[in-house]
Amino acid sequence: MDADIAVIGLGAMGSMTAWQLARAGASVLGFEQYGLGHDRGASAGESRLFRMAYHEGAAYVPMLRRARALWHELSDSSGLPLFRPTGCLSIGLPELPQMRRVRESVDEHGLDHEILDPDVLAARYPQHRVHDGEIGVLDAGGGVLRPELAVLAACAQAQRHGARLLPHTPVENVRFEDDRVRITAAGTEYTARTVIFTAGPWSRQLVPGLAPHLTLRPLVLTWFAPTGDPADWAPERFPAFIRDTDGVHLFGVPMMDGMSVKTGFADAFGDLSGTDAYTRDLDERRLRPIGEAVRRFLPGLHPDPVRYSVYMDAYTSDRTAVVDRVPGTDRALVLAGFSGHGFKLAPAFGRIAADLALRGGTDLDLGAMSAARFTAA
């Protein structure tokens, strides 16, 4: 037996899972088809938002609390600046469902926050063009994560605790037997007692039963240069933000590279037929809606991006991940379908996966993430 547990895919979820398993004393074998910290899946882009006041609902807050603590733990153990506390500003009309869920999150869980009426919002953060009636909810626990560094840090911590990680080793076949799992990767066969699939967009190939329920979509991120003083967009003066105005869903982070502000749309660029359809190139015309949104809502930025990048993620129909045992076997777990909002939660999901694999359960509620919800529909 080569390992107690094999982890297939070492992006955000896989690297955090390997870290948590190895620190718990399990022997871990990890497979990654590309290099560690690669930029082809959902775990890249130089910066990602962290927010506690959650647009997706208050039920996520206990998991977010755990994730935030683990982000700080990983930063401390690695010595790397993985989390930059900037706060996270949600902007929108108070009656919007997203804004109601943000308010529910802070009210139900007593989160540190501030409600900004339209006048205060416009005066304190003049970088945003505020529309009539819009409010801000400033989530003090929010901030900015550094994704590539985070994946590399989690891999390094896993290795420090004895995990064996194999980059540039694509998995070609997984076969389940009564007492083990046989994995063929880069022409070599390995065995483990349990396998955990954390393959992001490639989950459709590795866990075929999920394929009908996972849709691949590009994640397009864009960077815009300021027209005036760059200091106006520094983390100390411009929090991470997420905004819903007139049907436009825009998110962004402050200037982290000294020259540009990153913004993006969520799942607004259509679907991909498969991972082979992924491309890093976009027709310039497809970027124009983001530039138009920047012109409307962030007038202190040049409306043409200075650069862009394209990643991809797997989405479920209800935008809720699948974190469960693979149907038909007791030797496999799958974490998939994070639908563009999983990265901030990755350390918590890594802990959950380790708990499920080593103890058979977790203290966090995963009912909404059951794989059975699709077959029961």
From TrEMBL:
<dbReference type="Pfam" id="PF01266">
    <property type="entry name" value="DAO"/>
</dbReference>
<dbReference type="InterPro" id="IPR036188">
    <property type="entry name" value="FAD/NAD-bd_sf"/>
</dbReference>
<keyword id="KW-0285">Flavoprotein</keyword>
<keyword id="KW-0274">FAD</keyword>
<dbReference type="GO" id="GO:0050660">
    <property type="term" value="F:flavin adenine dinucleotide binding"/>
</dbReference>
<dbReference type="InterPro" id="IPR006076">
    <property type="entry name" value="FAD-dep_OxRdtase"/>
</dbReference>
<dbReference type="InterPro" id="IPR045170">
    <property type="entry name" value="MTOX"/>
</dbReference>
<feature type="domain" description="FAD dependent oxidoreductase">
    <location>
        <begin position="4"/>
        <end position="356"/>
    </location>
</feature>
<keyword id="KW-0560">Oxidoreductase</keyword>
<dbReference type="GO" id="GO:0008115">
    <property type="term" value="F:sarcosine oxidase activity"/>
</dbReference>
<protein>
    <submittedName>
        <fullName>N-methyltryptophan oxidase</fullName>
    </submittedName>
</protein>
